[in-house]
From TrEMBL:
The keyword Translocase belongs to this UniProt entry's keyword annotation: no
An MF annotation (GO) of this entry: hydrolase activity
A Pfam family annotated for this UniProt entry: Abhydrolase_1
Record has Metal-binding as a keyword: no
InterPro entries, A to Z: AB_hydrolase_1 (IPR000073), AB_hydrolase_fold (IPR029058), AB_hydrolase_sf (IPR050266)
Name of the molecule in the record: Alpha/beta hydrolase
Keywords, sorted A to Z: Hydrolase
Organism: Lacinutrix venerupis
Classification via PANTHER family: MONOACYLGLYCEROL LIPASE
Residues of the AB hydrolase-1 domain: 20-244
Amino acid sequence: MILDYKGIPVFYSDTGKGQVVVLLHGFLEDSSMWDTLTPVLAKKNRVITIDLLGHGKTACLGYIHTMEDMANAVYFVLKTLKLRKYIFIGHSMGGYVALAFAKKHSESVKGLCLLNSTYQEDSIERKQLRARANKMVQNNYENMVRMSFANLFSAESKLKYNEAYNEALKTALKTPIQGYMSANEGMRLREDSSTFFTEASFKKIVLLGKKDTILDVENILKFTKNHNIESYIFSEGHMSHIENKIDFIKQIVLFIEKI
């Protein structure tokens, strides 16, 4: 379904009945990443998936999409649907958007799952990499997307889950250059949310991949342990919905059932 938001189309889906679960995809993904999870959750919940700004069937709003910009578009969808309380599952960038949303609308958030995501801001090195990528992508877009996407998987996973990898790559390559650059810059500019996430009263969990090369997994696990934040670690990498599909679904269902 399409809504008009500030003159651009925003795509969402609305499935099932019950407590509301909002699924937010990551960078170079779209709401189709949830196609396996949605029917499982929709048996007992109302599941909303949304294509974030510059991804999938949602157009770009500008040349910088901050996490707050994306969260505002998400809020517009939920407000239009007259929904007031929800659980967020955010994959990677989707987790950053969910955090930005929760900062503005904490009273509406019942739970937040950071899936292969973090409450931390980018490291200085990561910020430099994003700035460099945005320069390089202007001249060699397809190769940059392929390289950015390939870094999300281990060499073993690319072979083991070759079909799913290729399908996800097709989605990534459909992301417009403006969508790539706007989101990348938005992630580069995001602020640290460690204190907010620690002190937030809603139910929370961090789900990580042991072999994830994008996140500082060891540091995140140490932080969650020190602050009594629930965490769980999958055996593989950054794309748990592909690399650890059965365990991923199980952990999401368990999290929602606890709320």
